[in-house]
Structures are given as structure tokens and as C-alpha cells.
Specification:
Strand content: under 5%
Helix content: over 70%
Number of helices: 17
Distance between the termini: 54 Å
Largest sheet: none
């Protein structure tokens, strides 16, 4: 009986950090999905009614503004993580996401507050952007530092699974509400329900993180973490950004931009395009786990190299499949991207944590990650749209994926293999800064 109780206690100690590390990413991408799903309703609620297109552009403009806050959020939350511990940083980030999400569900619209409504909405999105900038990177570091030796890859990959799970949860919530409510009710008040529900996810995250065992930095920087990072490790930050480029741009093109692309290129109705996208993301979850597990068995670099070669050599054939009018062939094409991006996203998080300087690990990972995701990834759908317009070719986005695969492939050569090393020694070997 004692043995069983002891095993249960060990299992509980392992499950709690996993749940604590993942739940912030679930909330972050849940919000991403529900904002995008209800962007038209938000535009009509918070902006003048003269031009529906202008309303939608304004709604997405405020959404994009949150992305511009990501680098600053990475600096702030990275500073907390490197100075005061990972638990403090993660508790701050989940609170800074949950409260604005909830308040967005309560915020009166333009008809009640006038210009104050979009200004307050913008403020809440900016606060959320600060949280997003440090949430995923701090959770990657936290999960990697809590992992048993030989399990860092699969543990850190769970941060990616949390992001995908949140996206699926948000999309499912929006779809269920749309099915259960009339269009008038959804427009009037139903769109607020998912934002209000975000408070429950945030509260669960706060409680989990408040009571999890903290991991303090092995050493603390003598100067402010951002100063230390920029002055001593700027080459490493650029390398981290380069290694994230394929994951960032590939994901935004394959799972954000492609929903619109399938409608324009193939004439699929929105529901069919979303179905294909949802199935592909569901399949990607076990692929991410497989990528993490494989990286613990054979190393981070071989798994990432295989994924990059799929992206480099397979982007054009996969887009050819996506361009076919058959939904089955289109799904097959997107599943190819799910394989490449899933494997890469499974191995990448552990490599980021292992390759970062120990004393500024949260800050360095946040900067590199946000350069790739906040700037390159965030601009990818716009760049793909512009390139299709300029070239007249629906295949143009494939060349963007090939370009970033080449960038990440060249950057990968700068990193040494560290999957078998104790965590405390990984940066000494991986360091290319000299």
C-alpha cells in the first residue's frame, strides 16, 4: 500500500508541473481562436457602423497590435523569470492574459461608450500581448527544467501541445455557440460568452502555478537580464530567431493563412476549409509528441533536419495537392505540413532551452522566439497574400516556406547536439558566442 501511495505521489508531482506549464498556452491560443472567430461581431460592436469592411480591418488591426507588444512582454516576463524564478513569471503571465480576456467579455460597445470602447479594447489587447510575449517561452523553460534527464524533449514539446489544444478549444467553443444560438443572439451577446469563460481557464492556471515547485535560475545575471542578453549573447539570440523561423512562418501560413487560401484558390466554403484545418491540427498533436520523444532518443538535430527537408523539398508538391478541388487531396496536402511543422515543433522547444545562456535563459529564449513569431510569423500571412497578388501564382506561399526552411537549415548548423547532456552543461557545449 505504501508503495502504491509513493508512486501516486511521484506521478502527481510530475503531472502538476506539466499542467502548470501547458495551461497558459491553452489560454493564449484559446483567446487567439475566439477573437478571430468573432472578429466580425467585435468589429460591429466596437467601431462605427458606416463601413463593415473598415470595422473588420479595425478589429484585426487591434488584434495585430497585441503582436507588436510581444517583444516587450518577452523582456518583462523574461526579466521576472530570470530574477525571481519561473513560477513568478508564469503566474504573472497567466493573470495578465485571463483578466483582460474576461474584461473584453464585459466591455460595453461603441453605442454605449463611443470612442472609449475601441480605445479600451485596444488597451486590453496590448496587455494580453505583453502576456503572450513571455508565456510560451517561459513555459518552455519551466517544462524543460522540470523534466527528468532523458525526457526534456517530450516535456518541452508539451508547451507546443498546449498552444494547439487552446486553438482547438477556442474554435470548438465558437462552433458550438454558433450551432446552439441564433445569429441575432450570437451577434448581440453570445460572442461574449467565450471571453467570460476564459476567466475559468486563467483561474485554474493561477492556482496550478501558485502551488507548483519553483525552479530558480542556476545563476543570476549581474546586470538587468535584457542588458546582459543584448550585450553578451546577441549572436545567440539571432541564432535562436533563425532556428524558430521555419516553425513560426510555417505554422502561420499552413494553419492561419491557408484557411482563406483554400476558399480563394479552391472555392471551398468556409466550413469545409475550417474542417480541413481542424483535422490537420488534431493530427498534429500526436506528431508533436512524437517529435519530442524522437528528439530524446536520437537527438534534436536529426528530427529537425528531417522536418526541414520535408519543408524544403515538399512545399511545392504539398501546395499542388492543396490546390486540387478535391477536399481529400487538400487535406492530404495540409497533413504533409502538419507532419513537418509538428516534428519540428516537437524537437524545437528543448533545443531552445538547452541552447540559451543559463543566467538569462528566459529572456534570451523570449527574444529569439518573439523575433521569429512576432515579426516573421506575424507578417507571414500578409507577405503570402502580397506575393500571390504580385505574381499571380497561388503557389507563391510555398516559396516562402522553402525560404524559411533554408534559413533554419543554415542556422541549425550553428547548434551542437546536447540531448544527452545534463541540463546544467548544455549551454557550455551549445554556445557559439565564443
Amino acid at each position: 500500500m505504501r508503495l502504491t501511495t509513493g508512486k501516486q505521489a511521484v506521478a502527481e508531482r510530475r503531472r502538476r508541473p506539466i499542467a502548470a506549464g501547458m495551461i497558459g498556452n491553452v489560454l493564449e491560443w484559446y483567446d487567439f481562436a475566439i477573437y478571430g472567430y468573432f472578429a466580425a461581431a467585435i468589429g460591429r460592436q466596437f467601431f462605427p457602423h458606416e463601413d463593415p469592411v473598415a470595422q473588420l480591418i479595425a478589429a484585426f488591426g487591434i488584434f495585430a497590435l497585441g503582436y507588436l507588444m510581444r517583444p516587450l512582454g518577452g523582456i518583462i516576463i523574461g526579466h521576472i523569470g530570470d530574477r525571481h524564478g519561473r513560477r513568478a513569471a508564469l503566474t504573472f503571465s497567466v493573470t495578465a492574459m485571463a483578466i483582460p480576456t474576461f474584461l473584453m467579455g464585459l466591455l460595453p460597445g461603441y453605442g454605449t461608450l463611443g470612442l472609449a470602447a475601441p480605445l479600451l479594447l485596444m488597451t486590453l489587447r496590448m496587455i494580453q500581448g505583453l502576456s503572450v510575449g513571455g508565456e510560451q517561452t517561459c513555459s518552455i523553460v519551466f517544462l524543460a527544467e522540470h523534466a527528468p534527464e532523458g525526457r526534456r524533449g517530450v516535456m518541452a514539446a508539451l508547451a507546443t501541445c498546449g498552444a494547439i489544444g487552446g486553438l482547438l478549444l477556442g474554435s470548438a467553443t465558437g462552433a458550438i455557440l454558433a450551432a446552439l444560438m441564433t445569429e441575432q443572439a450570437l451577434e448581440a451577446w453570445g460572442w461574449r460568452v467565450p471571453f467570460l469563460m476564459g476567466l475559468a481557464i486563467g483561474a485554474a492556471g493561477y492556482l496550478l502555478r501558485r502551488h507548483v515547485l519553483d525552479v530558480m535560475p542556476e545563476m543570476r545575471p549581474q546586470r538587468a537580464p535584457i542588458v546582459e542578453t543584448v550585450r553578451e549573447h546577441w549572436r545567440r539570440v539571432l541564432a535562436l530567431a533563425g532556428i524558430c523561423a521555419f516553425n513560426a512562418v510555417g505554422f502561420y501560413i499552413a494553419f492561419v493563412y491557408l484557411v482563406s487560401w483554400l476558399q480563394n484558390a479552391d472555392g471551398f466554403p468556409p466550413s469545409r476549409a475550417l474542417d480541413i484545418n481542424t483535422i490537420s491540427m488534431v493530427v498534429m498533436l500526436p506528431v508533436v509528441i512524437a517529435g519530442g520523444l524522437l528528439s530524446d532518443r536520437i537527438g534534436r538535430k536529426p528530427v529537425m533536419l528531417a522536418a526541414l527537408l520535408i519543408g524544403l523539398g515538399g512545399a511545392v508538391p504539398l501546395f499542388w495537392l492543396l490546390g486540387e478541388p478535391s477536399p481529400a487531396l487538400a487535406l492530404l496536402g495540409q497533413l504533409g505540413f502538419a507532419l513537418a511543422i509538428g516534428l519540428y515543433g516537437g524537437a524545437l522547444p528543448a533545443l531552445l532551452a538547452e541552447a540559451a545562456p543559463a543566467d538569462v535563459r528566459c529572456t534570451a529564449v523570449a527574444l529569439g522566439f518573439n523575433i521569429a513569431f512576432g515579426i516573421m510569423g506575424g507578417a507571414a500571412p500578409l507577405a503570402a497574400t502580397w506575393l500571390v497578388e504580385r505574381t499571380g501564382s497561388e503557389m507563391a506561399p510555398a516559396y516562402i516556406i522553402m525560404a524559411v526552411a533554408a534559413i533554419s537549415l543554415l542556422t541549425l548548423a550553428l547548434f551542437r547536439e546536447t540531448y544527452r547532456l545534463p541540463f546544467l552543461k548544455t549551454f557550455q557545449l551549445a554556445n557559439t558566442d565564443g
